[in-house]
């Protein structure tokens, strides 16, 4: 297999394109199947939620009707008089029973209505009550009705002369309409069988079902095999809590996985829960899985045939290009190849011809820039007047001045000697920032003796920057000299020159500021134009001025790139600010 692949580009391209095409096809088939399965599941969820909404509307109407009925009972004059009277009255009882019977008439979901006095009088119900499992909430929470106006019970049994049935009770206290004091209680019993029948008729898919839960997740109604009063977690252990008023979740894994939908009835805090086995989705997706497999197989066969034909047509001109390049000599410039087509291969040959031309041009540019860099550095060194014998002679003069007790001459000659010695710097192009600033200080010391009380000089540079970073030498001193000669010495009174430096992620930022005479706007525009031009060979120093700034700018551009050039800001009569930035390089971040 390895030999077959290495023998020809045609074989490798064929295999690569076939694999690169087949993998997306397989993924497309898999994705289409998964998408359809997801859409089937989403459709079942939407349909299930619509079923829960319909059930919610039915139950909400029933609940609202019962609660309105309970309020109507409280305000009924006969009920109020019976509960307020000290003794029972048979006529009153008969009237109330008839009233309750008429109230519950035609409402099949009303199992019973009970009026219970707080005194020893017997309770009244429209169906004779034999027994009940009902336990009022006040037996557990005596002050419940002080905070809540009503209470819905869980499912419990009730015995009447009609037999035993399961009911859900709405209980609430009855207060007198004049003094608002408790005088009795009322119970309206809903027939749980009617609710359960409605719940069971709401089928989700083929085998899904719906449950009605109370506020504690106990079953109020559901399939016959699920007992009322049990917690949902008894049938589905470790089920996650329901979050929000509605939603869905997955329960279980594999073939036992189920989708659980839920919706909360806000008025009574009951929950409608729909449970759909995931097997329902799988059975619906088997047909589409078979169809997808057939379509992908046909597509794979077509792709293989198409790729083999296409590769044959592509590799034929590439083989011709390879044979042409084999005959080219590596010692000579890359020859131009004739273009015989306008397709991708033809464009490749055009790009190759452009590339060979660009390589020649870039080679010439590199040689030109190196020549400019050396010229600028040599000019900077030559103008500094730095022969060895000169600063050696100055060193001797320095010691003679000290021996004769002439401190001013000794200081000036010493600074000049160090100034010239730094210019050589052992032939190195780079120095530490600390050395560069020391060089500027030597120059300033010389000028301060020549021009006493004419200027002040400050360096605001963090010692850490001076000690840890390196820079191209002879950058700051020409800027200080420019500020002194063209700004400070031409103004009246005492002037100042300050060097600032700070660093960030972009590099080290230098600023030389003076409060000299500044630069006229026309002159400033000319200077900025000069600085924006690319570096060129200068046979001699320009008589128009600005040479030092152009020299520093050219050296910055050649050594650090176009982002490191000088930026000049100035106002006539106020001063000048010159800025540049050097990046962190193998020298600048040493």
TrEMBL record:
Residues 312-364 form the HAMP domain. Signal peptide: none annotated. It comes from Paenibacillus macquariensis. It holds the Pfam family His_kinase. One of its GO terms (molecular function) is kinase activity. PANTHER family: SENSOR HISTIDINE KINASE YPDA. This is Two-component system, sensor histidine kinase YesM. The keyword Protein transport does not apply. Coiled coil: none annotated. Keywords: Cell membrane, Kinase, Membrane, Phosphoprotein, Transferase, Transmembrane, Transmembrane helix. The chain crosses the membrane at residues 287-311. It is a multi-pass membrane protein. It is found in: Cell membrane.
